């Protein structure tokens, strides 16, 4: 690790992620969701009907944090809890119609933020960036890295 740029890697990745979350918050006047709530909704829009405990794992947060987040999202009509058919102790979380209908608007905001972040990068630079970040995730997480994206 003699390359001085490598010492900046973690800071750069963290800063870019933080700045993107901040930008989502700035644009998100219409929906009023926090970045953590966005992440939860995106997960549900990808695979609806996720156990609450699994959501905590996927989002890498404590189960109590997910429970509170789901409480707020349920109160606002974004998600609903249902008991699992196979185990009535397990609560499954589902996106509501409101969340699914807002999906296109949310995707537009996401595309705007991504385009802002990637502006000035040529298509080949973008491909290299995505490939490198994907490889880094795979190196750190293993084969399940693709599931986390």
TrEMBL record:
SMART domains recorded: HTH_MARR
Positions of the HTH marR-type domain: 6-138
Alphabetic keyword roster: DNA-binding, Transcription, Transcription regulation
Domain of life according to the entry: Bacteria
Pfam families associated with the record: MarR_2 (PF12802)
PROSITE patterns noted in UniProt: HTH_MARR_1 (PS01117), HTH_MARR_2 (PS50995)
PANTHER family (alphabetical): TRANSCRIPTIONAL REGULATOR SLYA (PTHR33164:SF64), TRANSCRIPTIONAL REGULATOR, MARR FAMILY (PTHR33164)
Protein name per the record: MarR family transcriptional regulator
